[in-house]
Every structure is written in structure tokens, then in C-alpha cells.
Amino acid sequence: MQQRVVFVVFDGFEILDLTGPMEVFSAASRLQGRPTYTSEVVSTEGGLLSASCGLGIRADRRLAECRGHIDTLVVVGGGGGGAAVADDALVAWVRSAARRSRRLASVCTGAFVLAEAGLLDGRRATTHWSACERLAARLPTATVERDPIFVRDGNVWTSAGVTAGMDLALKLVEDDHGAELARSVARWLVLFVQRPGGQSQFSAQLAAQRPSSLPLRRLEAFVADHLDEDLRVSALARRSAMSPRHFARVFRAEFGETPAAYVEAARVEAARRLLETTTSGTSEIARRCGFGTVETLHRSFRRVLGTTPGQYRHHFASAASA
């Protein structure tokens, strides 16, 4: 039995949000030797739409013409998402179509359309790292997870930005037809079956707050320039002329995290840059960034990025450093 996948698009959508997942489903059909999935593209008025890159895409039909059972309803994202959220007809249709869909999904900022339709209330969800704060503010009853590449909550799946839609689609294929087909699709499309790490690999300060206090802004600059020095709470408190307890309380209120977590993230960020742009060994990077030992560097990378320094360098190093 064919599984019907319906993609909802709008003017200014991100082309890879559509074509990435669509190609995953298409590859699954080709590798199965039968049309396992069928894909349809729908929009409010149908006809020709422009993607954010300028490429024209013709929707298969208008929303009103898309009837019947839907296996997977996918809302894409992109720069035109603001207008899509304000399109009452589109939002109402998504809300209604959700009731006749086995599962719902969004790619990137398509999560905002699901949110406007009330389909993420009380759920866990994610979106592009740059929009997580906005989605959290819009959805006080939801839990917006900032690091995962995709999140599943019941029959609702949301993914991070752009190419993360392919990761999501690959997982949907695995959920439908097993790990072996998903591995075959990944090999064919030269994808990770499971991408190492999360969105924090791509966002330097995924959930960081900027301090309003001038002394703490100066301390922020000091930390960035002195990562190989003593940055324990006691040392930072002395530099800020506060008691350690008061400093820790003020720091958390201003930055939204503990001093230790902030320093670790700053050191990991510096190590990332060195891994991307230099040929320095991990022991040298650990020393320069204040980790002290390679083991500590590895532990911090695992904790903060969900990957290892070696894996990170393999995937993100520039040609010159590689």
C-alpha cells in the first residue's frame, strides 16, 4: 500500500525543506522497487510559487483540492513562513488536515505553522536553532528542545533547520519499513543514518543570554581572551569584586546558566574554531583552550556537542586545515 506524503508550501519557502525529504521518500521507493511513497505538493492557491532561492516550483493542487486520508503531512519552513503563519486559510487547513493524517511533521520553521494551528500545544518540539527562542516564546505550554536534529512527540515530528529535514525523513522511513531500508537510503544519498551530535554543532551560542550588566559584559570578554587561565567561580568572583555565592547567583540570573557551564561552552567554542581552521593536535588545543588534558576536552565535547573532537574535525575542518 502506498503511503501518501503531502508537503505544504508557500511563497518564499526553503527549497531544501521540500526537496530534501522528498528525495529521501523517493529513494526509498526506488530501492524497494515499488512506489512505497507518493509525494504531493500543495499550497493555498496552487500553481507556481517561488522558493527563497528564486527557483519556481509548481504546486500539484490547491489546499481545498487535497482531500482524503494523508499518511504524512509535512509543513516546510523558510523566509516566507511569517506570511504563512498569518494565512488563516492555510493554518485552518493544516489544523483540519491533521485530523485525517496518520502523522504530522514540520521542517525548520514550518513548526510555527503547526504551532499557530494549535498542534504543538503541550508537546516537545524543535526548529532551526536561530528560531528556538521565538518558538518557545510563542508556545509557553510546549517544551522547545534546542539541540536535537529532530524531535518526536507521539505522532508529531519536528525537525531542525534545512538539511535536518532529510534526517527526519530518513527516520520516518526507518519507522515505517525498518533500519535496513533506512541504511540503504542513507548510503544511496550519502547521508548519515544518524548524524553525530546536535544543532549546537552549528550554533555557537544556541541558548545563550547576553548580560545587561557592564561588569559582566567585561567579564565575558575577559573569559574569551583568557581561556587557558583559572576561570573557576572563586577566581571570577574575585575579578568581579563579589563573594562566590553572590557572583554565582548574579551570573546565573544574567547569563541563564552557571559560570561553570558558560566557561565550558566558551572553551568548547574556541576548540571548535581551532579544529576547523588549524592542524593543531588535540593535546595542544586542550592546553590552549584551558581543558588541561585531552580526556577533559573529549568529555566536554561529548557533553556539549554530543560528538568527539576527531569526529567534529572530520566533518567541519576547512580544506586547508584538513
What does it look like?
The protein folds into 2 domains: 3-201, Rossmann fold; 214-316, Arc Repressor Mutant, subunit A (Orthogonal Bundle), CATH 1.10.10.60. 46% of the residues lie in helices and 15% in strands. The protein has 14 helices and 11 strands. The strands form 3 sheets. The protein has a 7-stranded mixed sheet, sandwiched between helices. Strands 3-4 form a two-stranded antiparallel ribbon. A hairpin with a 2-residue loop joins strand 10 (150-153) and strand 11. The termini are far apart. Residues 204-208 have low confidence and may be disordered.
Enumerate the spans where pLDDT stays under 50 for 5 or more consecutive residues: 204-208
The end-to-end distance, rounded to whole angstroms, is 47 Å
| Secondary structure: helix percent | 40-55%
> How would you spell out the order of helices and strands?
EHEEEEEHHEHEHEEEHHHHHHHHH
Strand content: 5-15%
Indicate the CATH topology of the largest domain.
Rossmann fold
Count of all domains: 2
Strand order of the largest sheet: 5-2-1-6-7-11-10
CATH architecture of the largest domain: 3-Layer(aba) Sandwich
Total number of beta strands: 11
The name of the CATH superfamily of the largest domain reads Class I glutamine amidotransferase (GATase) domain
CATH class (first level) name of the largest domain: Alpha Beta
Mean pLDDT: 90
Q: Structural class per helix/strand content?
A: alpha/beta
The rounded Rg comes to 22 Å
Which descriptor suits the 3D outline?
globular
What is the overall number of helices?
14
Biggest β-sheet strands, sense, barrel? 7 strands, mixed
